[in-house]
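FAQ
Q: What does a multi-component entry look like?
A: The components come first, one per line:
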Amino acid sequence: MMHLSKNLLAGLALATALTSVSVALPAQAAELRMAWSQDATGLDPHKQTAFSSLRLLELIYEPLVRLDPELNVVPAIATEWEFAEDAKTLTFTLDPNAKFTNGAQVTSADVKASFERLLDEETAAAARSNFLSIESIDTPDDTTVVFNLSTADVPILVAMATINAAIVPASEIEAGTIGTEAIGSGPFILDSWEPNSREVLSANPDWAGGDVALDGITISVLPDEMAILASLRTGQTDFALLNDPLVATLVPNEANLQLNRVGQLAYNVLQLNPSRPPMDNLKVRQAMSCAIDRQAIIDAALAGEGVVTGPLTMPAFAQDPNSLFCYTQDLEKAKALMAEAGVDGFTAKVIAATGEPPVAASEAQVLQAQLAEIGVNLEIEMMELNVYVDTWLAGNFDMAVALNGGRPDPYPMYNRYFTKDGNLLKVSNFVDDTLDSLMKQGQAETDPAKRVEIFQEFERHLAEQAPWLWLSTSYGYTAQLNTVTGFEPSPTGTLFGLVDVTVE
Amino acid sequence: MSYVVQRLLTFPLILLGVSILVFVSIRLVPGDAITAMLGTEAGLLTPAQRESLAAYFGIDQPVWSQYLRWLGGLFQGDLGISSIYGKPVLTVILERFPLTLQLALMSMTISLCVGIPLGVLAATRNERPSDLVVRVLAMLGQSTPSFVIGILIIYVLSVFFGFVPAMGTFTPLFVDPLASIAQLIFPAITLGFAFAASVTRISRSAMLDVLSDDYVRTARSKGASPMSVIWRHALPNALIPVVTLCGVEFGYLLGGAVIVEQIFALPGLGRLVLDAITQRDYALVQGTILFIAFNFLVVNLLVDLAYVALDPRIRIGRR
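Then the predicted structure of the entire assembly, as tokens:
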């Protein structure tokens, strides 16, 4: 019987191999077959915040400006931009060649309509909170847009460099078809989309940004990343996005594959809830910060795939984490601080999301072991992502293991958590006068060097106050066949680099 | 016949119960379509923005009124619109169903073709080495989770054969039968592994019971060949528990094989439900579960009828 089933297997393998060859032959060389484990969740660039959605929409739509892999602001629809002296007026000059895929030119009227849609509460755009300083928008001619701001707002330029501030056709806004039809001005056109299954994109021949080497991209959703690896290994997939560091570390073992790894802006963090005792006690929070060994967490929970970080994860602002409060583990100091606080150990519940990030559970376990050293007993509660998000937004936790998104600028990244009018104050439960005033200074300052100074002071103070314990940044991974060349990864995770990719 | 009608009459009641259960439980779980779409960014919404989104997803009304509206649509054959797919729920389900049906049939076929002969073999060689080997294999098959077998199969195929089954989309049987079967054969084997093991064990023990029955001895003493005794006299009677098992398993498989569909990236009903739950597409969750429950009821009814065909002594519905 075993003999029979073996023959059967071999025969089937042969049969399927033959059929798959006949299917694979007609595929064009310049078609990129891409895979990812989580699909986009929608097509409205103003509303979508999921990682995959942003990555898809960045190929179809364009903002006024975008960020290059070094996080510099570079032209997209706008070719030039300028702040007025007082940082209260921001003027853009648009590329006269920029065209939507319906053939219409991208004009200042489209820019105005897009931002008005973003700001309209009916639209329910989460990114609206970054643009509240916009008072009015002037359009002196077709290619000039002037944003009049209510307050000096330097970080608004970087905030505009995301696909959440994409420029969409004013005609489509009027027709109410944003989100059902994807008409953008970007390098690719969306031909079809079967949610949770696949997307088919073709290159936009009229793209003002230059020539796209690829004819098109087919994105398949393969939920299991081991299956993605198998698919790459056998050459059925050219290019893939990977989340799980444990899968990514297997890629270099394959001779026909190449791994791209780039440090991300998002950060792994243990959020404490300073509104609950004993975490309301500064000394207890500091003791916890001193008790953990951040590098050991990376080694044990992240398979070494990460870098110790302070609150500021963007290279232009980051300072050596070792200069921050208690970034070297010091158990003696931790125990002394606990004694000073008069707290003789305690039990707290820490929440973590299952699979988001893939290393969340192991991170929680290593933290549990490390904090047990100073008598802090963690009870880990794993939650389905949605349940976690709900609990997290309500601030209903003692502690939370989180992977929070980063921004290229510290202001939009932390304004939401650590200023008095931040809209996620309920999550951080932490107000501090110094942080608040430094944040305001950083918003108004136009001199880049001075901004770095201001935010580095912000970072030192934040690490010392330890409302959260910043742990590490992870990597973003893409894997590709050796036949794929020209992709440059970016810390924002964008796949915009695909415009320069060629397939042999 | 009246029995069938009686059973059919209970269907709407059971389905109504299922619908209420699903409707309420999916809403009791924390998180809604808004947090599913925006994640932690949902915290940046103003109350007005939240209301606008709730109205868009149809979750701005009280639960009972949402339910009544949904039930009203149901009577007109309208299961609602899926927020993920932007299409009628029934259309989405019917697009996914062929794959699930074919996968279920293929894995059942494989399990039965492997399981019954092995079970018979083991029973006729009771306590001999070949019986022990089969029993150990059956234990192994039953206790190995399908995600282990699935990933192992993909690994072995890709590393040693340089091949993986087509993933991502499904080629329907009527479009290209060979490609369709080729795509599903390995998922079907994965899925069939544990079930083949159950079939082996059940058919072995049923066969052992039957083989010690009087009529089998009679058949033997009449001079029937050993083969004829086993396959013609004993096996049909030993199959009844296997039919019961198949009924349960088939009904279960028609609900989609979540893990196997996940590993092999097959767009079947199992992944549809999973995606619908994680993205909080309420209409889709409700519609799909109702569809699955309906299938289960129908399969169970057919299994009961199959008993009658297999064993003329069974008279259902008459007391």
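Q: Is there any commentary attached?
A: Sometimes. For this entry: Confidence is low (pLDDT under 50) at residues 1-28 of chain A.
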